[in-house]
Amino acid sequence: MEPLVNVTGIVMPMDRSNVDTDAIIPKQYLKAIHKFGFGDNLFDAWRYLDSGEPGQDHSKRPLNPEFVLNQPRYKDASILLARQNFGCGSSREHAAWAFRDYGFRVLIAPSFADIFYWNALKNGLLPIVLDEAVVDELFEAVQATEGYALTVDLPSQTVTTPDGSRHAFEVDPFRKHCLVNGLDEIGITLQHADDIRAYEQRRAGEAPWLFQDLA
Amino acid sequence: MAVRTLYDKLWDSHVVRQEDDGTTLLYIDRHLVHEVTSPQAFDGLRNANRPLWRLANNLAVADHNVPTTSRAAGIADPVSRLQVDTLDANCHEFGLTEFDMMDPRQGIVHVIGPEQGATLPGMTVVCGDSHTSTHGAFGCLAFGIGTSDVEHALATQCVVQRKAKNMRVNIEGMLPAGVTGKDLVLAIIGTIGTAGGTGHAIEFAGEAVSAMSMEQRMTMCNMAIEAGARYGMVAVDDATIDYVKGRPFAPSGELWEKAVANWRELVSDPGARFDREVTIDAASLRPQVTWGTSPEMVVSVDGAVPDPESIDDPAKRDGYQRALSYMGLAAGTPITDIAPDKVFIGSCTNSRIEDLRAAAAVVKGRKVADSIKLALVVPGSGLVKRQAEAEGLDRVFVEAGFEWREPGCSMCLAMNADRLEPGERCASTSNRNFEGRQGYGGRTHLVSPAMAAAAAVHGRFVDVTRI
Ligand code: SF4
């Protein structure tokens, strides 16, 4: 995982609530068997005017000029500003991969759906929850100012606006550690292999039916 | 020990280690694997040269991409075929137990787990699929995970979690005849909203839930995720234990007795504290129909499509307007004036034998309306299909003009060939009415199986309790 410490980037507004993972990456792209290459299909159904299929040359498809992602002023955005319950729906990690592959690093919203939130953190993306009132202000500022950028600093857990005002955010300390250092979570867990074995041994005594093989 | 909720008990018994900040390594008893969210996980294991921690704990099945027409011809779409072949190859290479596409036990992962007794009370159950909450009906801590966690669970038999808050949804009174667990859970989502359970584990409790069959409880827990809760659950009682008894992977003999004694404890203690409680009145509930593009956009069948202008919150008003335009509906339209083009009875929400019986009871002796282009019944598993055929349900459906298909996810998310065309409207027993969920531009109305069957024969939504 690519470490994430400090990001300064253009902000793209996504002004609707309950954006679901089917909208972030439609089901036809879930047929892939690899972990990369989803960036062209982020928000596929909203971004293009036709319905796309995997394996197609997406650069040849007609773009929806109305959709925010296609507006030149947000071309280089790396921070997404969104509304409540962002990422609701399925557990598809492809939604996080699509943001990552497109080039987003930070997502800001008043609330996120649980599974999406954790999936994002596991893929080098930082989801930040800010107060609804702050998010409202940011939406106004982004829409009013072309090139509007924010600075996000993970070690100090702050978002800084161009006029210098700072907003603190919460982040799970373990995830922060993994994100800042770009650490592989499985490797960390396997350092506790003895604990897992001890648990299994104790549990197999208490509840042996859980240790019957499926076969 | 202090009084605890069901969720507290399930959590406590699976903690391998907990850090001071609450980060917890949670042990996983059962891992269900399907073709869509696993290939990248197996790739990761291969790349890091990591073995599976506990092989015999995993059960794999292909369900999302499988065709629901003749299986003998294989999968026509090469991209779908590659994904299913990749699952087969990975299971073979790593040695997982798999029900492949031709196995009579194959079916939707959330149907086959309980059906096989692979899901047992008190277990932690994970799957790379958000509707894993279904298994919570058995007093399980069951939750959907992303692909990183699929890999993590395969490699370590654990996932890293933080404890959620406790929430109880109390159902008061009994459901009227013809009103089902599906209607109830839709009404709950309508009340608390699709983010109402975010950060919480929901326990469904009360008279109506106690009186429900296991299949209805599964339908309810299945849609806990649609209320924002990663976990939905119901306490263990006689119905739970009766359902599990004699299933292929369930314990037997002395081990069974020991297990049952343990499972009886899987209830919230009297006086246990919930961070949030919600009460829903069951007795006055009518069948529910969603009108929009989020499961919370739902009304009673005797209601009408709401008017966005009546909504004060501007963001919500906007959402309503957008949903109405996507759905091609005008504010104020009575639900019973809405005419579907297609009908889909299936999905991990409603494709079990009781669902098919309820639909068949409505269809029997009637015909699918001429205006319906396609009416599909897709059983949840090969064994559900066989049981339905033994009861003659397939003939009821086919004589009425339904298509009787092979098991799989099918038009719930349209990864296989079954899908809506742009603009088509569907009465569906599935769980999500998101834009494009059942096909690009498709419009979904979520309903119970009996309501879907009634819509098929009448060509529009009708109150199934009044026909
Ligand atoms: S039936 Fe639908 S919701 Fe259930 S697992 Fe399949 S695709 Fe997911």
Could you explain the architecture of this structure?
- The complex is a heterodimer of chains A (215) and B (467).
- With 215 residues, chain A is of the alpha/beta class.
- In chain A, 31% of the residues lie in helices and 15% in strands.
- In chain A, a hairpin with a 5-residue loop joins β6 and β7 (166-168).
- By secondary structure, chain B is an alpha/beta fold.
- Chain B is built from 15 helices and 19 strands.
- A five-stranded parallel β-sheet of chain B has the order 5-4-3-6-7. Chain B has a five-stranded parallel β-sheet with strand order 17-16-15-18-19. In chain B, strands 11-10-9-12 form a four-stranded parallel β-sheet.
- Chains A and B meet through α4, α7 and α8 of A and α2, α3, α5, α10 and α11 of B.
- The structure holds iron/sulfur cluster.
Topology:
The complex is a heterodimer of chains A (215) and B (467).
Chain A: E1 6-14, H1 21-24, H2 44-47, E2 79-82, H3 94-102, E3 106-109, H4 114-121, E4 126-129, H5 132-144, E5 149-153, E6 158-160, E7 166-168, H6 173-181, H7 185-190, H8 193-206
Parallel strand pairs in A: 1-2, 2-3, 3-4
Antiparallel strand pairs in A: 1-5, 5-6, 6-7
Chain B: H1 6-12, E1 15-18, E2 24-27, E3 30-33, H2 39-48, E4 58-61, H3 78-94, E5 97-99, H4 109-116, E6 124-127, E7 141-144, H5 147-156, E8 158-161, E9 165-172, H6 181-192, E10 200-206, H7 207-210, H8 214-222, E11 231-233, H9 238-244, H10 253-263, E12 276-281, E13 288-290, E14 298-300, H11 314-327, E15 342-345, H12 353-363, E16 374-377, H13 382-390, H14 393-400, E17 403-404, E18 425-428, E19 443-446, H15 449-458
Parallel strand pairs in B: 3-4, 3-6, 4-5, 6-7, 9-10, 9-12, 10-11, 15-16, 15-18, 16-17, 18-19
Antiparallel strand pairs in B: 1-2, 2-8, 13-14
Helix pairs in contact in B: 2-5, 6-8, 12-14, 12-15
The structure holds iron/sulfur cluster (SF4).
